[in-house]
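Exercise 3.2. Students should predict the tertiary structure of the chain below and write it as structure tokens, then compare their answer with the key that follows.

Predict this chain's 3D structure.
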Amino acid sequence: MKLKQVLATVAISAVTAIGVMWGYSKFVKNDNMYAGQLNGVIPSNYKFAGYSENTPPGGAIDFTQPAAAALPAVVHIKTKTNAKQVSNNLPKQRNPFGDFFGDDVFQQFFGNGFGNSYIPEQKASGSGVIISADGYIVTNNHVVENADELTVTLNNKKSYTAKVIGTDPAYDLAVIKIDASALPFLLYGNSDEVKIGQWVLALGYPLNLETTVTAGIVSAKARSLGLNKGTKNNSPVESFIQTDAAVNQGNSGGALINTNGLLIGINSAIASPTGYYSGYSYAIPVNIVKKVVDDLIKYGNVQRGYLGVSTANTNDIPETEKNRMNLKFNGDGLVITDVSQNSGAMDAGLKKGDIILSVNGTPVTVPSELQELVTRYKPSDKITIVYSRNGSEKTTVATLKNKIGNFDIVKEDNSSLSKLGAEFVTLDNKKAREYGIPGGVIVKKISEGAITDQTRMRDGFIIVKANDTEVKNLEDLKKVIGNSKQITITGFYPGYDGLYDYPIIIEE
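Answer key:
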């Protein structure tokens, strides 16, 4: 009899264990099929915290368990940028008295803006989140950008040197890695399920303090603040989760978790006139983070799918414009204001004036929501779009393309030209004749890169030489620079006197 009872107990335990593992595998099947996350594995930091995937921790507002689960996986990132000289050549207006007194007289008193300035060594810090047992960490791009040295300190005070795996300024995300094993890590949640009004916790290392946990509620979703404009990527991605959890300088890159201890966002920004917390903070949704992390680890850059439309909320369109466009729709959706040529949207039959209602079953009411949904996919992925045209609801399937208009994987451009951090356009022949030169290349939209790091070059600079070789067009510039590590760019500013040299060192 006792033997039967023992066997029955063993059998029940086995069935229970199998059932738990099956249930958990169903939970992670869709949410954790990304690089860094170990499918079907609950990290030790969750086990010891009494983790439950569906049931909130004990007590309606008791955050001890999710905090205990998450804290071991949130790290302190310290950065050091080495001292360097910066070319200080600034455009100088022609001196109207130079013909009488000579420029040297004025330069003695006022300076000429030439020469080099010295930027001292800089140190900063931020936060990061461990997402795998073997040391992959996600943080903000602005935390690690331009850093020469990265040091990661764990919650247990152990420190490691980290290397950058990949960054993307458009998303303000980066992946770094430390050489370690059996690390605690955070499990991905699902930011689509985040509700306005729900409790969340922000974890990080603000103001160079030790690990800090703050609590708040979600106050809005799909916020776009224009913080990532001016990046190398001309299509910045912003669809923030807005909370009132206190976040300060140093929290960037840290975790936003729900009451089950699941990662739902990466803290990225605050809205403040002073630079310190003033009421609202903003986190990048984890469903975007998962996609970016996966791509950066696999490809070194983000494989972003583009639909190819410009949109506006129906309520933001003036009535006169609605009448002109003959919009027969009174609900909430996104009016297509433009469709790019040779885009996935055009191929799918979408037209200007169509009103997008949902993407893959998710309603969209603001452009940032559409952007967030689309950027989760890579080129060649298909999305289902429900839209309204002339009062009739229709459905179409769009195949996303890359930024150059095809379905290929976009390889990272490691050329020196790409690392300069600007757009380059061949000077047209008419302008070249006006300037009395055989040709040149215009520097436009200077953003992040070697130019801003090492020079004071301004938009509109016209390159006529690179490394002492004549440059007539963009192809000449590409050939001359190639993969050179040391570059001297020579050119002029229209309306200003003289030629300017900008020596630049291209770092790996």
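Discussion points: The first strand starts at residue 74 and ends at 81. Residues 28 and 40 are 6 Å apart (CA to CA).
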